[in-house]
Amino acid sequence: MSLMWSVKVVGLGVVALSLSLELLGWVFGRCRRRRTLNKVLFFPSKVSCVEHLFSENSACSCFCPLPHGVETSFSCLLRHILSASSSLDLCVFSFSNMDMSRAVLLLHSKGVTIRVLSDKDYSAITGSQIGVLRKAGVCVRCDAGSVHMHHKFAVVDGRLLITGSLNWTLTAVQSNMENIIITEEAKLVQPFIKEFNQIWALNDPALSYKR
Amino acid sequence: MSLMWSVKVVGLGVVALSLSLELLGWVFGRCRRRRTLNKVLFFPSKVSCVEHLFSENSACSCFCPLPHGVETSFSCLLRHILSASSSLDLCVFSFSNMDMSRAVLLLHSKGVTIRVLSDKDYSAITGSQIGVLRKAGVCVRCDAGSVHMHHKFAVVDGRLLITGSLNWTLTAVQSNMENIIITEEAKLVQPFIKEFNQIWALNDPALSYKR
């Protein structure tokens, strides 16, 4: 074997090795991208029993007359809310849905750090769950600075954004045409986390005592 | 040179070539991913002059008392709406913002195919721009099937989704706390296109004549 051939073989080997590393990076990149959740839910949702979502035992038996074992937009939304293991930041204009309130209370009882921001006017209307959450010891702040705090978003564990047109009410879930985006896309999640922290800090009750 | 060495060299060459192709694909993939727009806008927006966005001449002179040359959430939103070159599908609960109406009319005058879906009740309130658009010849359909058609989204050229909590009103833009996501992420855009087409078809006036 000539020296030139040896050089060529070694060179090709180096190229093959570096390209293999690039390929590995590409494969890992693709796997990571595939895992990034991007989901859209539309409402009104079909009505089904969601009792199993609140039970530790996934095979819970419920004898209510609603359809069982059916995945609907609402059960999917509830599942993602209930997936919180460390924190739930919730910023919602109107909150009167009992199942969603029950989900927040369940997470609170499990030690998940909950922060709830709501609109001052709408938190006081009949059926609002804001008072219920407050009484249960959930941290709640109401915005009085703007005409309306009209957001409807939640951030689960600082990584999952749930946002859209849907207020957390029964009418929104069962009667209106609404949409919800559920995404882990950092470029979308991070600005919402920043926005939440800003509104949360602006509505610190300690600030109003100082004024 | 032995036969075995030739086989090794050719084999390594093939590996290097295939990996180079993978690398090229990876580079193109990364470039494409980088270009995928994912943006979040928050409101209320600062108020600034948006006259230049409606002018063919980018250096248009406006002498109104509002700040000029300032990029705000609203000017950014308007810019993305006005970027439509072939179609704009708009599905919005409440539409009374004059600048946004002007943008839709400008696109219509340029030959962009516009379809507007709105809520039946809210399209009839004082200040609604739905009648103005209809009179100008824009295709408008109002949903009467649900309690409220509460969506607030637009799809530009079948590729760009604009969605969030913001109704197309002056209060939403200048006074409320609101959010808008602007994204080209296909997994988010495509379901909204499908949803729009379904609601559009469901509210075809020809269907109500047949009923």
From TrEMBL, chains A, B:
GO molecular function term, any single one: RNA endonuclease activity producing 5'-phosphomonoesters, hydrolytic mechanism
All copies of domain PLD phosphodiesterase, residue ranges: 145-172
Catalysed conversion reaction: a cardiolipin + H2O = a 1,2-diacyl-sn-glycero-3-phospho-(1'-sn-glycerol) + a 1,2-diacyl-sn-glycero-3-phosphate + H(+)
Pfam families, per database record: PLDc_2
InterPro entries (UniProt xref): PLD-like_dom, PLD_domain, PLipase_D/transphosphatidylase
GO cellular component, one term: mitochondrion
Signal peptide limits: none
PROSITE patterns hit by this protein: PLD
Record's keyword terms, sorted: Hydrolase, Lipid degradation, Lipid metabolism, Meiosis
Domain of life: Eukaryota
Biological-process GO terms, alphabetical: lipid catabolic process; meiotic cell cycle; piRNA processing
UniProt entry tagged with the keyword Lipid biosynthesis: no
Gene3D superfamilies tied to this protein: Endonuclease Chain A (3.30.870.10)
Family the entry assigns: Belongs to the phospholipase D family. MitoPLD/Zucchini subfamily.
Full protein name: Mitochondrial cardiolipin hydrolase
